[in-house]
Every structure is written in structure tokens, then in C-alpha cells.
Amino acid sequence: MGIKSKMMIQGKTILQRSFSLRRVANEEEGSVSKGHFAVYVGENEKRFSVPITYLKHPSFQSLLKEAEEEFGLDQPRGGLRVPCKEEAFLRLTSQLNCSFC
């Protein structure tokens, strides 16, 4: 019974991640859900929609400082470019998502 509950919690967490951190490449270029902002990540600059609550977290603030140093504050694409690999960004946002649960 404990294993079944653990699996249900893990499944719920995965669903929450997929809804809160979803790729918006198929959406209109300027369209981001209320309470989110656009982030471009990796060499291919994949676009993600990220909850604004992540802005409070020190790890995400560190990433923002790196983005400012590398790309500056004037970013013309309508979203924030961050200087990290997609895998690292997904790992960070997964951790942040779990900390806000």
C-alpha cells in the first residue's frame, strides 16, 4: 500500500512539472500564461514558460545574474536568455518545483 501511494505522489509531481514548466514553442511567440515568463535555454534556445515564483529562489537569482553578465539586460526576443544547457536548466527547475510543492 505504501508503494502505491509513493507511485501516485511521483506521478502527481511529474504532472505538476509538465504543467508548470511547459515548452511554449508551439504557442504564439509573445504568448505566455499569466504568472509566467519566457526563458530561452541552451544552444538551440528552446523557449520555456517559467512561473514567476522562481524569481524568489537564490539558485534562480544566481542564474539571472549569469544571464545579465553574459547577455546584458536588453534582450530583444521578448524573453530571457539564460547561459546554461537545457539539461541543467530542467534539473534546476525540477528542484525548484519540488521546493514549492
From TrEMBL:
InterPro entries: SAUR_fam (IPR003676). Pfam families: Auxin_inducible. One of its GO terms (biological process) is response to auxin. Belongs to the ARG7 family. This is SAUR-like auxin-responsive protein family. It comes from Zostera marina.
